[in-house]
TrEMBL record:
The keyword Nucleotide-binding applies. GO terms for cellular component: extracellular space. The keyword Lyase does not apply. A motif (RDXXRA motif of the pArg binding pocket involved in allosteric regulation) lies at residues 338-343. It comes from Neobacillus novalis. ATP binds at residues 27-31, 92, 126, 177-181, 208-213. Its EC number is 2.7.14.1. SUPFAM superfamilies: Glutamine synthetase/guanido kinase. It is an enzyme of class 2 (transferase). This is Protein-arginine kinase.
Length: 356
């Protein structure tokens, strides 16, 4: 494996598969924050101390007694170009924080990109497991298995009273962030989302955009995740999040059926207009592309469009991001040039699918 292998393929293996409730839930993610005992946290450590953490992690992963998730590739942030880092962020393999604010960071990736272990981000270790559809329990089991194996080789910073110690107090305790990425166009079109988000926040959960904190909900895609890590078990956090997500799934399906009953021709018109825009545009901005892709995916999920697979939407959501467009072009592009290339790429990909 190499960095190029992760940059060339737009869709990770987990994105090309369908999971439970995948018409609404795109993915489930578990992230565990951990730190080495007796080492300064990344907010305070030196370059030399950061190197020690990376070497220690590389040696630990290189041991032959843990191969369940396959070979892992170590990629160092300071050896990547800005564009390469941006592509990995767009694929959800590393965080924006690791890409932009962690010059001494690194990431360990499995070949199928289901497991990502970020090193020297906000904490020394951040184990991330991504599964398609609503599979929080499965993702948690995988993350815990990796965590248990690492803990058998590494002494973690742990306190009997407070749990796992982390750079940010909000992660102290389990160090667990569980999140689910959801496509919620029905709740947007029926104008229910503005009422639902405050109710979710009151339950100790947070609603963010497609790339987490500070990002927009492009293409009607939202991340729902826990805020509280102290005083709750990992199982409690996962169960609480799954309960809220299950209610959202039910509400989204009800909203879609309401649209079918009350605004069927208008909905169908919107879906096929968006498909027409994607199939024929010569220039298209990222926000418009995301909106149209959301409409088309809704059309596929509701049976209006029968000849396109859902996976093509997952692929185009990533391929049309600025980093990927420039990666394919071989260098930086001005915004207008990106809009032209985005439109061309979408047209070509849809044409390929229609010719099958």
């Amino acid at each position: 494996m190499s960095l190029e292998r992760f940059l060339k393929t737009a869709v990770s293996s987990w994105m090309s598969e369908e999971g439970p409730d995948s018409d609404i839930v795109l993915s489930s993610r578990i992230r565990l924050a951990r730190n080495f005992k007796d080492y300064k946290f990344p907010t305070l450590f030196s370059h030399e101390e950061a190197k020690v953490i990376i070497v220690n992690m590389e040696e630990t992963i290189g041991k032959s007694d843990f191969q369940k998730f396959g070979q892992m590739e170590l990629l160092k942030i300071d050896e990547m170009q800005p564009l390469q880092k941006r592509v990995l962020v767009e694929k959800h393999l590393i965080s924006p924080h690791l890409a932009e604010d962690s010059p001494y960071g690194a990431v360990l990736l499995t070949e199928n990109e289901e497991v990502s272990i970020m090193i020297n981000e906000e904490d020394h270790i951040r184990i991330q497991c991504l599964f398609p559809g609503l599979q929080l329990s499965e993702a948690l089991d995988a993350a815990n298995e990796i965590d248990d194996w690492l803990e058998s080789n590494i002494q973690y910073a742990f306190d009997e009273k407070h749990g796992y110690l982390t750079s940010c107090p909000t992660n102290v305790g389990t160090g667990l962030r569980a999140s689910v990425m959801m496509h919620l166009p029905g709740l947007i079109l029926t104008q229910q989302i503005s009422r639902i988000i405050p109710a979710i926040n009151q339950l100790g959960l947070v609603v963010r955009g497609i790339y987490g904190e500070g990002s927009e909900a492009l293409g009607n895609i939202f991340q729902i995740s826990n805020q509280i890590t102290l005083g709750k078990s990992e199982e409690d956090i996962g169960r609480d999040l799954k309960g809220v997500v299950s209610q959202l799934i039910s509400q989204e399906r009800s909203a879609r059926e309401a649209l079918r009953k009350t605004s069927n021709i208008q909905l169908e018109d919107r879906i096929f207009r968006s498909l027409g825009v994607l199939a024929n545009s010569r220039i298209i901005e990222s926000k418009e592309a995301a909106r149209c892709l959301s409409d088309v995916r809704l059309g596929i999920d509701m049976g209006y469009i029968e000849k396109l697979p859902k996976t093509i939407l997952n692929e185009l959501m990533i391929l049309t991001q600025p980093g990927f467009l420039q990666q394919y072009a071989g260098g930086p592009l001005r915004p207008h040039e990106r809009d032209i290339r985005r439109a061309g790429l979408i047209r070509e990909r849809l044409k390929m699918e229609q010719e099958k």
